[in-house]
Structures are given as structure tokens and as C-alpha cells.
């Protein structure tokens, strides 16, 4: 909570730096700004764990049957579920909501080359997160699964989905070792991305995830965490440089996605 309040102050100070998004944010109450910021940070956090999953698949030679992108989502969800904290659970709920909203922003269009890609439809990715949540703890997450209209029968079988993922990853990923060298670098976002850069830096999630890697794993070589402007809304793992790159444009888009969902008139 304290970190969120500090981040809200930084965000408010940065509003003049980004006219388009700042205009939308300036019309919100403090609570609405906090919700928008939480949504953007939590979706960025899930994205980071997704990219960490690609890193672990690469460096630990983890077996993947099916799409690697789906496996990375499952690993990210599993990592957050194992934290078993209200903050981690909220991050998962926000991530699922993020995939639903992303799909709706494109009218859930999925055709042509999309079917041959390595990515599942956005709404499917959201439902998989919720399925693993309710599979891990039906009592705690039943209301969320109901809100996403997951039938009771499917909620029951989600238990087997979670048990399969949990058994597989528990056997493959050991967090009992430490010593991974992780170098974290923040590049200047420039005037247009000043608010996004401050939101991402201030959230602390980049440093937190990097520290989890240092303390929980022993990977060969050095891992690089780089935050920068990319010219596109993206985050990715580069196996050639063992580097996780997070683009400031992505957290900016997450903020705008949440704003658009609250008021569709903001959509372009």
C-alpha cells in the first residue's frame, strides 16, 4: 500500500509530461487513478513472470509439450499462486482481466495467420489463468470463476489442470539454490514515455523479480533485465543475450486499456 501511495505521487507529478494519457488520468479520482495504476503494474508483473518463464525454459532446458507461450503463461500463473498472498492473487485477477480487455479491444478477432501463430486467443489465456486459480483453491477463487462464467463442472476439472501443472513444475524447477547474476538497467523513456517510465520504475517490480531470480535459482552466466523504450508495446526474452526486455510502451498501454474499459469513449 505504501509503495502504491508513493507511486501515485510520482504519477501525478509526471502528468504534464504525457498530454494524451495525462488528460484522461487528470479527470479521475484518486481511487480511480490507484486502480488504473494497480491494473497496469499487475499486468506488467504477470508479463515479467511470463518472460522469466521463457528464460527458465531456455536455461534449464525445461521440456515443453504444446505451445511455449501457453507454457510460459502457466509458469507465470504457478509462480504467483505459490506466493499465496492477496497481492499475488490480485495480480492474477488483473492479468486475466487484462487479457479479456485486450481481446475485446480487437473485437476478439482471431483468424487467418493467427491460427498458425504460437499464441492462443486472448480470452482463452484469461480463462486458463482463472482455471488454474480455481483449480488451486476452489473455495478462495470460486467467486472469481463464477464472475468469468466458468461452469461449475469445468471449475471442478480445473483441479486436475492445476495438479498437472503443479506436479510437473514442482519436479522440474528447484528454488532451493541461489546465485544467479542479474543486472538491472533502466534507460531513459524520453518525454513521451516519462509517465510510463516513472510508473514502471516506481512500482519496483523489475527489481523485485530480478531479486527473486538471484535468490531462488542458479543459472549459468549473467541475466540482463533491461527497461527501455522500444517503439512498440512489447516485452520479450532474447536468448542470444540472455536478456529480458520490458518496453515502457507496454505499461503505458496497460494504463490506457484500463481507462478505455472504464469509459469506451476514450477509444480511438
Largest sheet: 4 strands, mixed
Q: What structural class do you assign from the helix and strand content?
A: alpha/beta
Number of helices, where a helix is a run of at least 4 consecutive DSSP H or I residues: 11
- The coarse silhouette is globular
Portion of residues in helices? 55-70%
Task: Give a structural overview.
It is built from 11 helices and 4 strands. It folds into 2 domains: 2-43 and 176-266, no CATH class; 63-172, no CATH class. The longest helix has 30 residues, at 30-59. By secondary structure, the protein is an alpha/beta fold. Helices cover 63% and strands 8% of the residues. A 4-stranded mixed sheet has the order 1-2-4-3. It has helices at residues 2-14, 19-26, 30-59, 68-83, 86-105, 122-136, 138-147, 152-172, 194-203, 205-216, 248-262, and strands at 181-186, 222-228, 235-238, 243-247.
Task: List the keywords.
268 residues, alpha/beta, 2 domains, four-stranded mixed β-sheet, 4 strands, globular
Amino acid at each position: 500500500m505504501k509503495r502504491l501511495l508513493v507511486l501515485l505521487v510520482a504519477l501525478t507529478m509526471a502528468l504534464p509530461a504525457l498530454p494524451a494519457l495525462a488528460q484522461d488520468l487528470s479527470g479521475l479520482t484518486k481511487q480511480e487513478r490507484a486502480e488504473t495504476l494497480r491494473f497496469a503494474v499487475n499486468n506488467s508483473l504477470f508479463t515479467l513472470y511470463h518472460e522469466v518463464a521463457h528464460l527458465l525454459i531456455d536455461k534449464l532446458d525445461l521440456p515443453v509439450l504444446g505451445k511455449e507461450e501457453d507454457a510460459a503463461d502457466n509458469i507465470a500463473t504457478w509462480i504467483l499462486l505459490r506466493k499465496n498472498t492477496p497481492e499475488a492473487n490480485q495480480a492474477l485477477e488483473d492479468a486475466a482481466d487484462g487479457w479479456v480487455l485486450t481481446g475485446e479491444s480487437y473485437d476478439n478477432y482471431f483468424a487467418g495467420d493467427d491460427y498458425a501463430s504460437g499464441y492462443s486467443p486472448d480470452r482463452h489465456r484469461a480463462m486458463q489463468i482463472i482455471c488454474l486459480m480455481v483449480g488451486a483453491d476452489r473455495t478462495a477463487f470460486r467467486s472469481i470463476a463464477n464472475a468469468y462464467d466458468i461452469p461449475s463442472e469445468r471449475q471442478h476439472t480445473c483441479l486436475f489442470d492445476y495438479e498437472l501443472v503443479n506436479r510437473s513444475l514442482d519436479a522440474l524447477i528447484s528454488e532451493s539454490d541461489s546465485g544467479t547474476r542479474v543486472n538491472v538497467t533502466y534507460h531513459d523513456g524520453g518525454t513521451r514515455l516519462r509517465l510510463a517510465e516513472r510508473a514502471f520504475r516506481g512500482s519496483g517490480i523489475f527489481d523485485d523479480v530480478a531479486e527473486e531470480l538471484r535468490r531462488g535459482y542458479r543459472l549459468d552466466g549473467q541475466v540482463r533485465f533491461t527497461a527501455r523504450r522500444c517503439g512498440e508495446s512489447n516485452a520479450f526474452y532474447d536468448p542470444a543475450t540472455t536478456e529480458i526486455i520490458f518496453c515502457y510502451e507496454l505499461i503505458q498501454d496497460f494504463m490506457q486499456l484500463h481507462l478505455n474499459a472504464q469509459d469506451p469513449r476514450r477509444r480511438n
